Fold these 3 entries.
Entry 1:
Amino acid sequence: MDVRLDDLRVDGILRGVDLHAPDREVHGIVGPNGSGKSTTLRCVYRALRPSGGAVLLDGRDIAGARVRDTAEHLAALTQDSHVEFDFTVTEVVAMGRLPHRGSPEDDEEVVAEALSRVDAAHLAHRGFLSLSGGERQRVLIARALAQRPKVLVLDEPTNHLDINHQLAVLSLVRGLGVTVLAVLHDLNLAAAHCDRLHVLDGGRVVRSGTPEEVLTPEVLHEVFRVRAHVVRHPTSGVPQLLFEHRESTP
Amino acid sequence: MTPTSSQARPPTARRPPTAGLCLALTAVLAASVVAGVALGPVGIGFGDVLRFLAAALTGGTLDAAEAGPYRIVWDIRLPRVLLAAVVGAGLSAVGVAIQAMVRNALADPYVLGISSGASVGATAVVTTGLFASLGIYALSTAAFLAALAAMGLVYVVTGRDLTPLRLVLTGTAMAYGFSAVAMLLVFQSPRGEAARAAMFWLLGSLGGVTWTSLPIAAAVTAAGIAYLLTRAKHLNALSMGDETATTLGIDVSRTRKALFGVTAAMTGVLVAVSGAVGFVGLMLPHLVRLVVGADHRKVLAVAPLAGACFLIWVDVAARLLAAPEELPLGVITAALGVPCFILLMRRRGYVFGGR
């Protein structure tokens, strides 16, 4: 599914975000703290109503669709996951089936599959609140997968994950064959796993393109105010960044 | 309260099947109704109770000598026991729904200020003789009208979107305001008896219940529980956070408004017929979650049955413990509930609100 953000505005935060992620591409959003990354995603998964502009899925403005209809195609990993009661892992993942009208047997199968894809099948009967941060994150990703979305919106999916699971989750996401819009903090992970990157600064997209085009020493200096060297990954060839220790702060 | 490691709880929680549990509780409920009717200052045999009930329901005949006990069973005890069941079921279900709706493990049916509002109406009747023309219905009517007014006020003050925190803060603040008004009424009252009467009402009582108050309370409670059961999955999603619920296809604002309306109306009716019976709506939901887990489809099926049984026995205790005086229900719910709750909490490593 094709995702387009058209002049997206949120008072005081977003000043016209334009972004286009064609069907089945993995797009990363990067930028310094407070640049509007999460706010952009919140508009896409409808937690926030933009004050101007639109989010278009296959050319249709989501503002005109029912929340439930959007949830049939679009799943999200949000930052507000705050569980008050001790659901089991299976119950949490099964919530991903809420927008669909499937039979309980099918749902069960989808839930089990989603759990095993994030390497969490062994947690199925555990209480969610008894899990570690990384385990919780994987379970929440499984919930998004159980929604069988065509668009996956991820707000810092690698949070709390160890390096093995960071790589596993990102390659899983790449292999899903769905459109992905992800906010990523780790620029090297973003460079290695995204088809295109969008750099947000001050509430607008200041640079878009392939990781090679976007992650240049100039952009990093301008937007993140760091000095960096760009090197090629010896096997995959993707650009990777080496940061220079800074003597003084601006 | 929080397990510090994953070893603190068994990897697989043993949980009874919900259908079996509901069936067992229904049997316990039926037995509790009979026992509740039989037990009291005037003891009546279980066999006699069953015979009287059969006679009343099928139109059978009884000895003239049995007219006295029959009156006690049919006119006094049965409506009271049934109302106890209705109130227990309703408060438990409302407690479950409100805890999920405001995502707060400490919430109970009274956190929205509805009951404190009702108490203003009730104390006004007790102290000033308001609605005197309505006779014995004055108290319930005034309490219900005041509950409705409180509900409207809380809704308006909370503002456009009923976010959990705003709802709880507004409800709590308003509750203090309403309580202040009720206390002012009591202390300004020239009748010394008024304070005691108002206090007794506030702590909940089913004394003097007749058949007339039962149908409305039962109908509202049944309809409310049925509605909540259809919203069980929504409550699951809402307990995961508003943003997550939105991504799962829930129109959060509309769902919460509907839940507010339904739970507030149920609370208003229940408080009007029985006063503000405390603790049931806070504790029963947690007790049930301890047994069946957090899934609201299970919790909402089991909690009303458990609450109904619980309050029947509480009311029996209220009648018996200090007979011929009656104790307020709130005293007994707390006396029974607190130790039982602490025990279960410690034994199962129950997680309140996580972390």
Entry 2:
Amino acid sequence: MKQLQKHKSNFLLGLKQGFPIGIGYLAVSFSLGIAAHHAGLTAFQGFFASLLEIASAGEYAAFTAIAADATYFGLLLATLVANARYFLMSCALSQRTKDDLPLRHRMCMGFFLTDEIFGITIAQNGFVDPYYIYGAATASVPLWAIGTSLGILMGNILPLRIVSALSVSLYGMFLAVIIPPAKKNPTIAILVMVSFFLSASAAILPILSSLTESTRIILLTLVISTVAALLRPITDQSTTQSPA
Amino acid sequence: MHNIYIYILIMALTTYAIRVLPLTLIRKPIKNTFIQSFLYYVPYVTLAVMTFPAITQATQSPVSGTIALLLGIIVAWKGASLFQVALLCCIVVFVLECFL
């Protein structure tokens, strides 16, 4: 009974702390909806794509691939690369769950592992209560899916100037994820600059520029990360920190 | 032409597998330094590659996208939240494109 009370209060705490995330999601997923619209998704399809993936960079990569009529395997690769960081977060979270936590909870928690939910969850003390994650997800994930649909429906009606402005919100969010760690870790700062430079070069250079955008993203990510891992292998506990 | 529902299914299943496999299978930290390092760098590299030069092409004028990028980096460096950085980038582009 006491355990049940604890789950309930953690669920409510998750709801409360998840709501501001949901508001942010609404704005960001709106611009994601514009990308989904370009890829030819209907509002209905966009709603489910967002509800089932819940990943900004991953969905953006996927919609870019779909817009380019990528193969199914190409889409799988694009999704895999853009979402690879969740693998790490999932590893980190596994270290913060009780050993006897039932499989069904692990399977549900994993579904809601976004940058932001991971961020607030890992900021809690002690072992993670899955009900905290469920609360945070309840307050934020529906807004993520609804925002995507709205972006698909209204991206075309809104004046071009507003669409142009909203389309950078996603990139702003990416910056908010990569810049704070770059401030703390010089290797990441250099990596970000190198990535910017090579990405811009690859968009102009012969052969590379003829590839699709999503293929270039995968290729550059694999090459740059491999070189970085070889030159600067990490030694400390930095992997368990939230990139969000 | 590919089926959009198969696309969505691939997106959903791939992402779910990435998120849930370590949590259900791995109870100990990854020991291999190379894999650990590679996975550690991947998110930053991939997000950086996706951001530039795409942000300069997403806007109607490359100038507004570039300025949004620079200001976004500055405020993120100064510790602004995810939502604040995203909002600022939008406002910068909107205001600049009123003049450009």
Entry 3:
Amino acid sequence: MILPAAILFALFIFWPFLRALWLSLHSWDGFGAPSWIGLLNYQRLLDDHIFLGALENNAIFVVGVVVLKNVLGLGVALLLDQAVRGRAFFRAAAFLPVTMSFVAVGLLWAWIYNPVFGLLNAALETVGLESWTRAWLGDAQIALYAIILVDVWKWLGFHAVIYLAGLQTIPPELYESAIADGAGRWQRFWHVTLPLLTPIIFINTILILSGAFVRNFDLVYVMTRGGPNHATEVVLTDMIREAFLGGSMGYASAMGFALFLIVGALSAGLVLLMRQRSLDV
Amino acid sequence: MAGNEPLPGDPARGGRATATPIVHGLTRPLPVTIAVYVGLGVVTLQTVYPLVWVLFGSLKDKSGLINNIWGPPTELHLENYAQAWTIAEMGTRILNSVIVTALALVIVVIAATPCAYAVARLRFPGRSVVLAIAVAAMLIPPQVMAIPLFMVARDLGLINSLVGVSFIYAATGLPLSIFILRGFFLTLPDDLEDAARIDGANRLTILFEVMLPLVRPGVALVLIFEFIEVWNDFFLAFLLLRQPSVQTIPLGLVNFFQQYDSLWNLYFAALAMTTLPIVAVFVVMQRQFIAGLTAGAVKG
């Protein structure tokens, strides 16, 4: 019964995984015979300032989206949890970008940031902030943060909905007794809502982390291709360029495998942390 | 848009009646109410307006796009759609996306269901190993294996093959699908299976005729996840579908914009016709969709 799954898995997950490891220990241009070079590829990674820059950008990306998606997601969930007219409409609206592809979102925002016909500069001019207008994706100081915001925009509704589900499992009696004890709005949030949401915060953080290292290729490729001057380079865009333009298959495999080790170590750490706090999620 | 009654099949909603007029049993002071509506207004505006802007832009001509940036079009240039459809070869791209997505969904359900059933309900040596591998594989993003995956596909002659790529999509979706379906199989009572076995049904009959209909919500969840994944995927398509004739929608969009310079209004039309219908379908189905996603996340 597990045979069909096992064949698919072995062929397209397990075998490529082993080959990635094997290739990363070789020098190979994609055509001739790979030659064994041991850990030289990994050593080269440590001196490659483009790769290190990409790794740093990845780290900024991860911290940025983990903080923003959690904080804003919870904020939006609290708004959506209020009893208001048209609540279903507001929920659907908040969720819209989740259904769009990264390519569509990336193109849309590349146009919003466009200096000629972009919505953002037009909006800034309308409210009298002409001095703030700029080529958002052409500015090496800003481009990475501009892309991070786009990723947050796409996923905000998704994380808000998960927080909303969490908020709705909190028994109302707890709020009633907190009110009876004289707790104000903020006190109720800090002492009732937030502690009870801890498992949901973990779930959201895992979901965000699992995407944050590798799901940014599409956005970066579509919006800036890693430019200007590698300012928005992430590991995957660097890897794909090395492999298919630079022809260094072995070196690119080492990049992929290094990324896998980092993601794996972080996931394992997070799972251990959850076990320790005995959160069964 | 949906009403406010509890979502069917959403366990999270059971605890509290959603029709409660005032939150947490407290009357809300007016400034708070105003702040809530302003906040919701901002959230709605920043998601809806960019999409409306795409729709507006798709109906403008080029000068309208540059001179009247954020307003509605003054005259309707519907011919943008016809031109974008032809130049970007949208018909072919949509057909390719439909073929790849449909095949991948069928393959993943056929492969994942028996495996999830076996892991959940049969006792065999190595059962926990299969489960551990599935969980571990969920943490390996297929993207980091891009290069060997490309080589395996090349060795098997699957580059530029829609069918071949469907199998690869199915494989990458397998771990999560097995995990989700296993959760649903675990909730079924043993009696059903025992009764069917006494009636002389074999394992496969039990699986497909007795058990499968009972885990339909799980299959639906797998289909939703996989649909979003495959239909929207750019990375694997970019890697494996190199010929224009087999490219899917996301790849076609990117190529269209790179190949033809500054046909801005046509870009907007191409994005509008490939994105807005899907968005509309999700708006109509959003209750089931959101319920499925949250049930999955809270369960998983």
